[in-house]
Write a structure and sequence with these properties.
The chain is an alpha/beta fold and 354 residues long. Helix content is 41%, strand content 19%. It is built from eleven helices and twelve strands. The protein has helices at 13-31, 44-50, 56-65, 83-95, 160-177, 195-206, 219-228, 240-253, 292-304, 308-323, 337-350; strands at residues 2-9, 35-39, 68-73, 100-106, 124-130, 140-143, 151-154, 181-186, 213-218, 235-238, 261-265, 271-275. Strands 2-1-3-12-11-4-5-10-8-9 form a ten-stranded mixed beta sheet, sandwiched between helices. It starts with a strand and ends with a helix.
């Protein structure tokens, strides 16, 4: 039996995670899949009450006994430095060696895209970013803390192994998907010297993938493509820092953060799934935030488990909910968070639009 570790987290996390679990249960009821969802209470309140973020032994249990981790959201204004977030997410990524961050960018309905000439189906590409290195590798220090001369030093760490394995995975993935081009985002050598490090590795790897074009672009060039010709993109690969920027712009052109999802993974190991929108604490408790990202995350999880038909049930029901405006007010609909979950679960139970 596949086991899923479920962390609702903070803010609207418990609300959207609850709807994702509701939809998952509808799938299980219809299909008979054997899945076990175990809830874990890690988030701001536990940190405030007990000073606990995420113990090492818990991460080891996840690694040993679970196939996936789902997190609804993390972040709380009562912890202004987000200490618990910084302890939980980097710890999971680093200790489980989740070196790939994956962000699918797909426009489901034209009305959500700020690029008005783009149509649903034309914006459909994927972003892979290296997930553990760069300036986000948590190697930093604060000096003269609390004084007017306080200093923060951050270091960017890039390793040959890290560069090699993200690009090796990217080209393997592109071949599996039948993509013709991998777009690699770097910068000019005279601006960011480690770019040669990236290009040299790609030049070696790409020799084994002659059918796939390697297109090197700078960050400004890629942002220009995103805003003017996103239909040209198939698979984008970037370092951690650039990948974060690209993914955020991608989220906006697909309809905003409440439709954006991500996973962090190491092929063949446990994966971490999250909606991108974060805790949205000002909306917590209002039953008003769209649960579509959390629900779509569950579809991605099922697809990764090999349950592709069940994943299609969820995605079809989500599309129907969007097309018929059975969605929350923040997306132009009339339903509450829980009502959206009820609607999508009902579509799945009835086998509608499959």
């Amino acid at each position: 039996m596949r086991k899923i570790a479920f962390i609702a987290g903070d803010g609207v996390g418990s609300e959207v995670a609850g709807e994702a679990e509701k939809v998952l249960q509808a799938v299980v009821d219809r299909s008979g899949l054997e899945l076990q969802v175990d809830h874990f209470d890690y988030g701001a309140q536990k940190y405030l009450d007990e000073g606990i973020t995420l113990p090492d032994e818990q991460i080891e249990e996840f690694h040993r006994d679970y196939a996936a981790i789902f997190i609804g959201a993390l972040g709380d204004p009562r912890i202004p430095d987000d200490a618990h977030v910084r302890d939980i997410l980097p710890a999971l990524r680093l200790k489980l060696d989740l070196y790939v961050n994956y962000r699918p960018i797909r426009l489901i309905n034209d009305r959500y895209c700020p690029l008005k000439r783009e149509n649903a189906g034309e914006i459909d590409f994927e972003i892979l970013r290296e997930n553990l290195e760069g300036i986000n590798s948590c190697v930093d220090g604060v000096f003269k803390r609390g004084t007017e001369n306080e200093e923060l030093i951050q270091q960017s760490i890039i390793t040959r192994r890290g560069v090699r394995r993200i690009h090796q995975f990217a080209f393997d993935y592109a071949r599996k998907k039948g993509y013709k081009k991998v777009t690699i985002c770097d910068s000019r050598p005279n601006f960011y010297p480690p770019v040669d490090f990236w290009k040299n590795e790609v030049d070696v790897i790409s020799k084994d993938f002659q059918e796939i074009e390697s297109d090197f672009v700078t960050l400004p060039e890629l942002l220009n493509i995103l805003l003017n010709r996103p239909e040209e993109l198939e698979l984008v690969v970037a370092c951690n820092n650039f990948g974060s920027i690209i993914a955020e712009i991608g989220s906006e052109i697909q309809g905003g953060c409440t439709q954006a999802i991500e996973k962090s993974f190491n092929p063949g190991r446990i994966s971490l799934y999250m909606p991108v929108h974060g805790p949205l604490n000002d909306q917590a408790g209002k039953n008003a935030v769209s649960p579509l990202a959390a629900i779509t995350c569950m579809a991605m999880l099922l697809g990764d488990f090999g349950f592709e038909q069940e994943a299609r049930w969820i995605n079809a029901a989500v599309k129907y909910a969007i097309d018929t405006e059975n969605i929350t007010n923040d997306l132009g609909g009339r339903l509450t968070t829980s009502q959206v979950g009820d609607f999508i679960a009902d579509q799945i139970k009835r086998g509608a639009h499959q």
